[in-house]
């Protein structure tokens, strides 16, 4: 049986990567606000120090820290006020011993000063003299030139997803546009004579379509673009024609259902027929997720991905393969897992990696505990009850109570 000649996750990933490596990933230039949510396709280096001058982080007086030595509420130090710095203007004066200058928050700290005293710890005795009631150390409440970003420093690396904070950093550098990776264009096909839309009341033997919506939402979470989606009855010719029509403008065509070895499960034969490279994975050494099929069409540059019909399995395999491929091509970092200990013994399928859904609980001592969420991969609610999943080794007999694991969060 072909389905018994399964690939491990790593083997399936390697075959996919080998197939698509020549295509690479397209890039496009976007304005920094439009680029939020995209992945950087270039390194961003700082061409100038940020800030370009020393800035005060408080409203107060610029001083020489040595002049405030010993100052306290009972014994203030008296300093001569020699000027005031205006916001947005250079500090043209120079501070000497025994002097101070008023500087607003964000204002330029004048030469000669090495610290700021908050206005709350100062008292004016006249327009020319201030009492300082607190000693400060060198550098107090002062942001040094280049402290945020140094000239020549690599500020953002290729593979960084642009969030609002990255957009702010780019603006600080005077960069208004960046090269980003174009997201995958995904087409989703759900198959099954039993499927009806969520708006319909299913008759006996029918079920509402879950996979189209679950995979669509997961693709959006991964910042992919949905190109086409449809639900098809179990008909080989219809499936073949639909896949072919979606391929020219899709990076990935996903078919959920029809990937096991039932009489109407024809996804593998369709991919074998229409993909130039044919099927290169027919079965994944993963539970759930064994009936997974992958193939590649060189002329259109399309990855063809046949997923299990069970919703939980389909969504997890999509993340494990399509999500991984995106990170592999763009350099985007995988989300960090959370370390936890198992709440109970958990057996696994021999010869296969097991993807086990878990929910997290925190003990009084702060320890994270992974509690298995049990149920068939055909039940969508097991995903709603889970915080993430753990993967057991291919040759492991399972996980033991108290064993440390990595939980990959949804």
Q: Roughly what percent helix? A: 10-25%
Largest sheet: 6 strands, mixed
Into how many domains do the coordinates divide? Answer: 4
Q: Give the CATH level 1 class of the largest domain.
A: Alpha Beta
Number of strands: 28
Note poorly predicted spans.
Answer: none
What fraction of the residues are assigned to beta strands by DSSP?
A: 25-35%
Structural class: alpha/beta
Strand order of the largest sheet: 7-4-6-5-9-8
**Second rung of CATH, namely the architecture of the largest domain:** 3-Layer(aba) Sandwich
**Overall 3D form:** elongated
Task: Report the total helices.
Answer: 7
Mean pLDDT: 93
Q: Tell me the CATH topology of the largest domain.
A: Molybdenum Cofactor Biosythetic Enzyme, Chain A
The CATH superfamily of the largest domain appears as: MoaB/Mog-like domain
Alpha carbon gap, first and last residue: 34 Å
| Integer-rounded radius of gyration | 30 Å
GO molecular function: metal ion binding; molybdopterin molybdotransferase activity
GO biological process, one term: Mo-molybdopterin cofactor biosynthetic process
Keywords: Magnesium, Metal-binding, Molybdenum, Molybdenum cofactor biosynthesis, Transferase
Cofactor: Mg(2+)
């Amino acid at each position: 049986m072909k389905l018994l000649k399964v690939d491990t996750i790593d083997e399936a990933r390697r075959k996919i990567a080998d197939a698509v490596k020549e295509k690479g990933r397209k890039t496009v230039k976007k304005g920094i606000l439009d680029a939020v949510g995209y992945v950087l396709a270039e390194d961003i280096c700082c061409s100038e120090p940020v800030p370009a001058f020393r800035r005060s982080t408080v409203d107060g007086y610029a001083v020489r820290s040595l002049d405030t030595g010993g100052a306290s509420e009972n014994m203030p130090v008296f300093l001569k006020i020699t000027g005031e710095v205006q916001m947005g203007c250079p500090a043209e004066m120079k501070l000497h011993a025994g002097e101070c200058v008023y500087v607003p928050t964000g204002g330029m700290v004048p030469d000669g000063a090495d610290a700021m005293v908050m206005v709350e710890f100062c008292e004016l005795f006249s327009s020319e003299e201030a009492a300082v009631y607190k000693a400060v150390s060198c550098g107090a409440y002062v942001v040094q030139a280049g402290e945020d970003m140094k000239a020549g420093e690599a500020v953002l690396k290729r593979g960084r997803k642009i969030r609002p904070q990255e957009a702010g950093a780019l603006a600080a550098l005077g960069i208004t546009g960046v090269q980003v990776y174009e997201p995958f264009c995904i087409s989703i096909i759900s198959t099954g004579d039993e499927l009806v839309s969520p708006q319909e009341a299913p008759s006996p033997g029918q079920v509402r379509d879950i996979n189209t919506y679950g995979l669509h939402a997961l693709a959006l979470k991964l910042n992919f673009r949905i190109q086409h989606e449809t639900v098809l009855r179990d008909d080989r010719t219809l499936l073949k024609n639909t896949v072919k029509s979606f391929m020219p403008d899709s990076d990935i065509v996903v078919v959920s259902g029809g990937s096991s070895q039932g009489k109407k499960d024809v996804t593998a034969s369709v991919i074998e027929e229409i993909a130039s490279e044919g099927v290169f994975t027919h079965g994944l050494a993963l539970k759930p997720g064994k009936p997974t099929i992958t193939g590649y069409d060189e002329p259109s540059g399309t990855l063809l991905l046949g997923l299990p019909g069970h919703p939980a399995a389909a969504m997890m395999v999509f993340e494990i393969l399509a999500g991984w491929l995106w990170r592999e091509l763009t350099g985007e970092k995988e989300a960090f897992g959370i370390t936890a200990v198992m709440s109970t013994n958990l057996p696994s399928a021999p010869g296969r990696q097991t993807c086990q859904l878990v929910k997290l609980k925190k003990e009084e001592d702060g320890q994270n505990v992974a509690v298995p969420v049990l149920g068939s991969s055909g039940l969508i609610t097991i995903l709603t009850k889970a915080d993430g999943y753990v993967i057991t080794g291919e040759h492991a007999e399972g996980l033991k109570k108290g064993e440390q694991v990595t939980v990959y969060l949804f």
